[in-house]
Amino acid sequence: MTRDIGLISDTHGLVRADVHRALAGVEIILHAGDVGGEEILAELELIAPVRAVFGNTDPRDHAGLVDALDVVFDGIRVHVSHGHEMGRAGSPEARAAAYDADVVVYGHTHKQRVDWVGKQLVVNPGAAGARRFDLEPSVAWLRITDGRAEVTLIALAGD
Prior knowledge:
It is a single chain. The protein has helices spanning 18-22, 38-45, 92-98, and strands at residues 2-8, 28-31, 50-53, 65-66, 69-73, 76-80, 103-105, 113-117, 120-124, 138-145, 148-155. The protein is mainly β. The protein has a single domain, classed as Purple Acid Phosphatase, chain A, domain 2. Strand 6, helix 3 (92-98) and strand 7 form a beta-alpha-beta unit. The radius of gyration is 14 Å and the shape is globular. The termini are far apart.
């Protein structure tokens, strides 16, 4: 069985039209924070059910957000947090060590990154919202098949 999971972060109040193309067909979207409003979650729900965590810019009364997510897909443990709790300098090794999960998903830095730390996959899908820090907007597609996880970064079009 294959599980397809959309990973998104740092929308900061903007869902680019290209997100619908990039994540079409996923069964769930995991949002790693800095959502930017409840309407963002509603827009993403048009693609697939969404689970999301607080980012450092999200108000604490934002409905539907939690501090962290720990979910299991076919035996693969996935941890999602925004990442600001470790700061911008949190290395992939530090993030892997901090969470007991097979896949660690974070945002905050806006930098797309995929690292294997031993058997742990550490993923930052990049920022999907307005372009900042001269970085290209992106999301990621996490595929779990037969107890193995792999991820693909997907660039988003438009400005």
